[in-house]
Amino acid sequence: MASAYPNSLYLILLCLLPVSVLSQTNKNITSGSSLTAVPNDNSSWTSPSGEFAFGFQQIETGGFLLAIWFDKIPEQTIVWSANGGNLVQQGSKVQLTTEGQFVLIDPKGQEVWMANLAGTGTVSYAAMLDTGNFVLASQDSTNLWESFDHPTDTILPTQTLNIGSSLVARYSEMNYSSGRFLMQLQSNGNLVLSTVHFPLLALNTDYWSTNTNGSGVQVLFDLSGSIYLKAKDESILSTITSIGASSSNFYQRAILEYDGVFRQYVYPKNDSVADGRPMAWSSQAHVPDNICMNITTQNTGSGACGFNSYCHLGNDQRPICTCPPGYSPLEPDNEMMGCKQAFVPQECDGGQVVDLFDLRELSSVNWWGGDYEYFKPVSEDWCRQRCLADCFCAVAIYNTASECWMKKIPLSNGVQNNVDVGTKALIKIRKDNSTTSIANSLKKQKSTLNLILTILFSSSAFLNLILSIATFWVVFRKRRITQPSGEIQGVGLRSLTYNELEGATNNFKEELGKGACSTVYKGILAIGNNNLIAVKRLDKMVTDSEQEFQAEISAIGKTNHKNLVQLLGFCNEGQHRLLVYEYMSNGSLASYLFGNSRPSWYRRTEIAFGTARGLAYLHEESTNQIIHCDIKPQNILLDDSLTARISDFGLAKLLKTDQTRTLTAIRGTKGYVAPEWFKSKPVTVKVDVYSFGILLLELICCRKSFDQDAKDENQMILADWAYDCYEEGRMYMLVQEDEEAIQDIEKVEKFVMIAIWCIQDDPLLRPTMKRVSQMLEGAIEVALPPKSPN
Ligand SMILES: *[C@@H]1O[C@H](CO)[C@@H](O)[C@H](O)[C@H]1NC(C)=O
Ligand SMILES: *[C@@H]1O[C@H](CO)[C@@H](O)[C@H](O)[C@H]1NC(C)=O
Ligand SMILES: *[C@@H]1O[C@H](CO)[C@@H](O)[C@H](O)[C@H]1NC(C)=O
Ligand SMILES: *[C@@H]1O[C@H](CO)[C@@H](O)[C@H](O)[C@H]1NC(C)=O
Ligand SMILES: *[C@@H]1O[C@H](CO)[C@@H](O)[C@H](O)[C@H]1NC(C)=O
Ligand SMILES: *[C@@H]1O[C@H](CO)[C@@H](O)[C@H](O)[C@H]1NC(C)=O
Ligand SMILES: *[C@@H]1O[C@H](CO)[C@@H](O)[C@H](O)[C@H]1NC(C)=O
């Protein structure tokens, strides 16, 4: 009996196998076959090698896309989609009808999309080929329709683009419908990249071209990783991108991405051929080099970034769109679609006082569109006053040649250009959003005082110790008397006198908190958005020299991101060193998260996104890389709209914490501190990734990383408990009493896995914050983290 059971099971398996094999790896898809969009159902039509598949892909934004994708890699990589990239609902069906049509129908039976056979015949069978081409063929095996002839944003090796063909960028990373950029082989033989008059596909401004008038006839992607433009006689006119990677060792694709850049990617088929490349898609070549600098015309349209936004390249050479100070993105969390003024603009009724507005400076930024007036030669002060007094002026541009331009809304084709350092943009913003908002903040201020106490000052025991050591170290150094300093050049930071700050804080009357090395006071000063400020007074001079202080302050002042607490000004006068910050009305994440009521799961995910973006910016996008070194809920503050804002960044270097890190055999428990602090290994940005991982777990579970009163001893250390739950496949345990989170368990599990990647002991295994941010937002898949921490 004991042996009969496995036998019968084997038989059942044998009976089942042929059916599923047929549906998975069929070569010819016959008339009457269909696929239905069902969640977590992986049925698809795969190519004989299994590398490509055709079917429905579930998209995170909700819905299904009829698509072709790379099927042997974990990342969701769609290379073609039907129906203009528009999603369909669960229950939709794609079918090769007995009448020989290939149609997509919605759950109500309405036809949504159909392969356009242009009357060439009826389809007898379909096939997913190993090249990634999906074909519909007639009885006599002639191809009536090929996905290769109807590309979306991607081309694959062996695919060609002929005269008139184009690739259209998708709208955003996760929205596959058509976006703002197009690549076209034009009838004049030129291959061009162009912006379009969105939402139409009509061409607007070319920003790259092969300049092959009258000669180009075909673009070819060959098997050795080169993309050429060829002439009629087959000669090569122009190499568009070339990376020399064989298609037998690498998966390859080239895509016009949603940021307007055409990039060629490879993915090693296995470790042995990777040759040092990561086991992931990596971009190996792209055109144009710098899209920000290539779209600088006065043409209509919004350029590389949307209206009022400006474009600059990040460390990875990808364009980044940023809203100027006082402006916010039109689409939340998508700065590529432009920005709007986040304040009531100046009215032109003549009755308004000029001092309601102020100018914020952005160095090396210019908008190429939006000019309406030009003055030369004038002084910067004249240019500033002129803009403040002119209700049409939204931005003034001033340069070292004493030129001054007035620009109006909408601003277009904004660029931050590191070559043209003499140019600065003066952005006009309302000083105090409105009088009522000030009154409200003042009313709120008593009740939030307790919250604030914990804000700028709640240093962990760890940082306190470091600060004391730093102070100790400094006390033995000769004090210097410094002169009152001037502006810090090129940074929109106000240099304030000690007297001014004494006045603003009413002689340092209201103390908000005290740390090992500094004290924070509340103040009122016409400098921030709502006039309320937090003034941090460094008790001891902890920096080495005047220049060093200036340099660090300047580095902190250059950062500008919606997820950072903005440094507004400073005072450096004699022994007095003070930093002036925006005042955050909603206190710290620590009190929000560990307070009496549990914040909603949605809020917590938003805070995770915001913190990750802020850190990615500090690590990768700010002019000087900044390692925070003390990420924890006490250092994440929440503004009026509960957006996460990282505080105290840049202080690690200013206070020289890194010099003392070898003295820190402090914690037996897993706190926020990465293990390499305790070893003599170099401290890199990955220490922040570690701390973020712990913070993310706290956000998921709404509890502290260390909880002495935990129900169970195993649950005392959150990181260990999360690991246990992950290893046992019971991640829901972490959010057991949280109905909302349970409803969204897939995201909870994803977040836990991301957190586990972040707290790997080996810093090299931890992802970068940029990658963390992309994983959180669903732009890239999350691989399974290693099971055991060590
Ligand atoms: C697919 O069908 C066509 C026409 O019936 C036939 O010629 C071809 O050999 C079939 N291919 C495969 C791989 O079955
Ligand atoms: C589909 O794939 C996912 C992950 O790739 C897997 O977890 C799931 O079990 C699969 N479902 C089926 C029905 O094969
Ligand atoms: C994608 O973007 C388009 C254009 O803005 C919009 O109409 C559509 O609703 C978006 N689709 C999804 C799934 O968000
Ligand atoms: C290509 O044609 C355009 C007009 O269609 C013309 O302006 C341009 O000078 C030509 N370029 C070359 C290289 O012939
Ligand atoms: C790796 O891939 C190459 C090319 O596909 C193949 O020739 C080789 O056998 C593979 N090696 C391993 C270890 O799978
Ligand atoms: C855009 O940049 C490329 C370099 O990537 C340059 O060769 C080309 O001339 C530029 N095109 C335009 C239209 O400015
Ligand atoms: C300023 O106030 C307006 C309405 O009075 C509001 O819509 C806007 O969001 C506020 N902006 C900021 C930056 O607080």
From TrEMBL:
Main location group: membrane
Query: In which domain of life is the source organism classified?
Result: Eukaryota
Q: How does it sit in the membrane?
A: Single-pass type I membrane protein
Give TM segment ranges: 451-476
| EC numbers, comma separated | 2.7.11.1
> One MF term in GO for this entry?
ATP binding
* Signal peptide start and end residues: 1-23
Q: Where in the cell is it found?
A: Membrane
- Tell me the ranges covered by the Protein kinase domain, including all copies: 506-780
Q: Which family does it belong to?
A: Belongs to the protein kinase superfamily. Ser/Thr protein kinase family.
> Which Gene3D superfamilies does the protein's record reference?
Bulb-type lectin domain, Phosphorylase Kinase, domain 1, Transferase(Phosphotransferase) domain 1
Give the SUPFAM superfamilies listed for this entry.
alpha-D-mannose-specific plant lectins, Protein kinase-like (PK-like)
In what residue span(s) does the Bulb-type lectin domain sit? 26-149
**Gene Ontology terms: cellular component:** membrane
Against SMART domains, the record matches this protein to: B_lectin (SM00108), S_TKc (SM00220)
Could you tell me what this protein is called? Receptor-like serine/threonine-protein kinase
- Give the main EC class: transferase
Q: Which UniProt keywords apply?
A: ATP-binding, Disulfide bond, EGF-like domain, Glycoprotein, Kinase, Lectin, Membrane, Nucleotide-binding, Receptor, Serine/threonine-protein kinase, Signal, Transferase, Transmembrane, Transmembrane helix
Report the catalytic activity: L-threonyl-[protein] + ATP = O-phospho-L-threonyl-[protein] + ADP + H(+); L-seryl-[protein] + ATP = O-phospho-L-seryl-[protein] + ADP + H(+)
